[in-house]
Amino acid sequence: MKEPVLVQAPKQIQYIQFGVPSPRDIRQVAEVEINDRDLYKPDQDHRPVEHGVLDPRLGISNKNDTCKTCGQNMSDCVGHWGFIELCVPVFHYGYFKTIQTILQNICKKCSRVMLEETDRRTFLRRLRMPGIDGLQTRALVKGVNDRCKKVTYCPHCGDTNGVVKKGGPLKIVHDKYRQKRTAEEQDEYRKTFTNAIDADPQLKLLVAKTQSEEMTPLRVYNLFKNISDEDCELMGLNPKSGRPELFLWTCVPVPPVCIRPSVAQDGASNEDDLTVKLSEIVFTNYILSKGLAQGSSAANVMEQWDYLGLAIAMYINSDVPGAPLAVVGKPIRGFTQRLKGKQGRFRGNLSGKRVDFSGRTVISPDPNMRIDEVAVPERVAKILTYPELVTPHNIEHLRELVRRGPDVHPGANTVQYASSGQKRVLIKSIRDSVARQLRIGDTVERHLINGDVVLFNRQPSLHRLSIMAHSARIMPWRTFRFNECVCTPYNADFDGDEMNLHVPQTEEARIEARELMGVHNNLVTPRNGEPIIGATQDFVTTAYLITQKERFYDRSQFVQIVSYCFDADTHIDIPPPCIVKPRRLWSGKQIISILLRPNKACKTKINLETKTKSYKKVPIPDLCPKDAYLIIRNSELMCGTLDKSVVGDGKKTSIFFVALRDYGTTEAAALMNRLAKLSARWSCNQGFSIGLSDVMPGKKLRNRKDDLIQSAYAECDNYILQSRSGKLETLPGRSVEETLEATISRVLSEVRDKAGTICMEELGPYNAPLIMATCGSKGSAVNVCQMVACVGQQIVSGSRIRDGFTDRTLPHFLKLSRTPMAKGFVANSFYSGLYPTEFIFHAASGREGLVDAAVKTAETGYMQRRLVKAFEDLRVHYDSSVRNSAGTIVQFEYGGDSLDPYCLEGEGKPVIFEHNWKHIRNTVDVSPQEERLAPFQVRFIVEKSLKEPRFVNWTTEYWRDEVYNFMDKLASRLAELRQAYGLEPFDEQPAGLLDPAAKPKTRGRKSKPMAATLSLTKEEQPILEWSLSKVDGKHARLAQRVIDNKLL
Questions:
Q1: 557, 619, 561, 627: which is closest to 592 by C-alpha?
Q2: pLDDT at position 6, please?
Q3: How confident is the prediction for the chain on average, in pLDDT?
């Protein structure tokens, strides 16, 4: 007869349920009962004792032994469990709070949950509703607990119940008569001891203590066994997998020997903490069982019982509050300590682990490296290898590497044959034969070579840019080197920092690292889309100095400097000089223009117009006296100097971000590489340093500073007199003293700011600290002020220095003195030196900064870790909603607008219309024959285009409105311009023109043009007249009319 066909369809796991193991489960899993405290037999073989905590049936920790249970050696035996049968139950420390909660909910006589029958049925019905989630269940269980806390008399048996609380380490007490309603019962209870107290008055104190009864583990265990299954449901427990009596130990599991190995040392063995604690538990259990059998005193039994509970609790968690500390050596490590924390099993060995093919050493700067390169020491490159597969294209190359061996770079360390899987180490005697036998399909573990993809990482890894993919370049010496432009994402400096290097071992990993983690693809931060890789410090200073107005070079100097930027194979078109007479000179701005676009064949045409760091509003920005308004047209620097806002990181107005946005990552990275090489070499030749003369104030500066300080002192003295005479007007919500402190703090804080402004005005243009503060490469006006003029008011905890002695800050001052010098104002500068009192005040302020840095680093680090662990399963779905791993919606639309900050062109805007318009206008060539549009035609075409499906289906109405409004402004400006030149503005569609796309009939120039009047300042009028006087030919008459009538 033919057997029926068994269809074994794949099964799907529906859910995983965790439960508390019962004593029966523990015994079933175990191989042996442990009841002997001894570890080894007292013989020469030093063999483990049977039924001891190192019983051979529990597994082995010695590579020479064989497991008595499974017969395997140490590498194959996974270990086996044992158990210890306790003579009395003890509390499980992990469930101690749960035990307290359950005891509070149940009657201490009948074990019933103390709810009225109607409430009981209501809660059970709601808990058994299908589809109820964990949060709802938790809320219902809390409601049961809250109601039971208020019950004094059990509704089922009428017994008195009080508050259950912790009475010490692993002790629970029941304060039965704590409620006011039980006062009469408490008096009755005390009367039963009247005769005994009369006979012995000292018993009165003991009777007072006996009002709270101790809930011993045995009593709690018996109460929990009597709890019904329905009552378990009311308390949120599953009666099948987690009954309350399982929350107490009656049978302790003994883990395998392999997780608590013995370490041989000096002919003896050093035992693990768990082994020692298990031996202690076995011995205490034996003493307690023996005492119970022989009828020991109650005090002795209770003492041993408490000690047994404490030993088992420390076996689980050695940080039990109130437990005795280790007498000698370090504290023991229980199971909890082995699992939790940074060094625990999860974070230390599973989530994070030590890996092969990695290196670590000190980092150094190298501006000659490309931003996507990292210099790897040759010594490291010989150790880190990449398994390259032998193909017909590389077999001869790999044979040469095999012949070179592991000691010469580039070489190879091992060869693995595809046929046998055997791996051969390339010792000198077999290299030639192995090279000859090399076949297609074999794998050669060659040294790291130039161009290999490596991962570069600096800890702490706080964001995704803390680890990026670089291209290796093998160099001599002992440090990793990379371009300083990449310091910001790593938060690296070169004062001894170390970084990690990882080598991907497959082609898939290399490609994935290059595409997802490559430096080129991570030039901007995903936080807000701002560039995070850019020029820093010396590079910014050099860019600023080169682009100053007075920088000129002859042809040989100009060509030499330009050659710093490029490789030897780059074609460079030298522009005509900007000054012809009396000699041909090129400016520093022309160097930057060549850096942006080296030749006419280059398609990179950067267009940028922005204010730099030191810009102050003037009527005509192009003519800013400080040359602080930057204009770049088609990669030609027209005016302005480069500073941190233009070439640094963190600004979307930087040249690199504009290049990235308009021409891609490769061009942006190339510009950074050119600027880095130019800056490093120009600085070496030109020189830039700080000396004592740079911080030496002149006589005029000193006089202005002294006048400023004396004026502030006089103002402060006036406020002090007003406060003492009661004439000082108090600020809202502040006392007179608080008002005085706030007012004086404001006055003295302004002194440093004003002194900084004076320094910026008085110091020469070639002052090094001033140059660095102006261009933003390092420091600020406040730092310059502290070095040159005055250090200023010292603030501690948001206020002036508080009194450290009786009514004064230091013994040097009079009591109750509130003068600036007595409360932390430092009038001297670092150049002139600080008085002793000023030095103490400055040190107090500096210490606060150090403490804040240390404390906030730890706090913010832990805060970020908690946020990361909470949000790590969130992801954006195809409907733009943000959901967690369970599919629960966290946010209906990502960010509220579905915009990726990484891709935004502007501050909170996906597209910068103004920049794109100017860029297109400057780069697109318009044919003379092409028809010009009137303003109303521009509006018509834009409106018609925005109604097409390609816009309606893929963009929001808000974005379409923004596009239309921008083009509408352009059309309005065009109409105004036409009107200013006396043409028909065509701002509205002419009457009679049915088709707006048709060209309107333009009338000739009006006899009397409509002009827009200019509003010129006294400084602008001569400039405009001089400019227009240079106009010749057919435009001379128009220029004269402009001068005479001030027409646009």
A1: 561
A2: 59
A3: 85
Domain locations in the chain as residue ranges: 94-247, 272-353, 355-522, 538-686, 692-853, 1011-1048
Give yes or no on whether 538-686 and 692-853 have one common fold: no
- Write phi, then psi, for 451 (nearest 5 degrees): 95, -10
Q: Assign 3-state DSSP to the chain and report helix, strand, coil percentages, each to 5.
A: 45, 15, 40
What tokens appear for 416 in the block?
């693995």
In angstroms, the CA 872 to CA 881 distance is 16
In 859-980, which ranges are E strands?
875-876, 882-883, 889-891
- Which homologous superfamily is 692-853 in? RNA polymerase Rpb1 funnel domain (1.10.132.30)
538-686 under CATH 1.10.274.100, yes or no: yes
Write b or e for each residue in 745-756: b if 16 or more Cβ atoms lie within 10 A of its Cβ, otherwise e: bebbeebbebbb
Identify whether the C-beta of residue 386 lies closer than 8 Å to the C-beta of residue 397: no
Look up tokens 């379409």; give the residue.
960
Q: Are 487 and 539 in contact (CB under 8 A)?
A: no
What is the DSSP code string of 566-625? S-TT----PPPPSB-SSS-BEEHHHHHHHHH--STT------EEEE-TT----SSGGG-T
Token output for 631: 């204009």
- Ordered DSSP codes for 459-478: SS--SGGGEEEEEEEEESSS
Tens of pLDDT, residues 102-154: 999 999 888 899 989 898 999 999 988 988 888 899 999 999 998 988 888 88
Sign for the pseudo-dihedral over CA of 960, 962, 964, 970:
negative
Q: How many CB atoms lie within 10 A of CB 717?
A: 14
Q: Number of C-alpha atoms within 13 angstroms, CB side, residue 584?
A: 8
Task: Identify the H or E element spanning 703.
Answer: helix 699-725
**Contact in structure between 623 and 595 (CB atoms under 8 Å):** no
Decide if pLDDT at 92 tops 50.
yes
- Domain range 355-522, CATH architecture: Beta Barrel (2.40)
394 or 204: whose pLDDT is higher?
Answer: 394
Average pLDDT over residues 969-978: 89
803-836 pLDDT, tens digit each: 888 888 888 888 888 888 888 888 888 988 999 9
947 in Cβ contact with 1007 (< 8 Å): no
Percentage of the chain beyond pLDDT 90 is 33
Which has the closest alpha carbon to 220: 240, 194, 248? 248
User: Which region, left, alpha or beta, applies to residue 630 given φ > 0 means left and ψ of -120 to 50 means alpha?
Assistant: beta
- Closest by Cα among 403, 531, 518, 371 to 454: 518
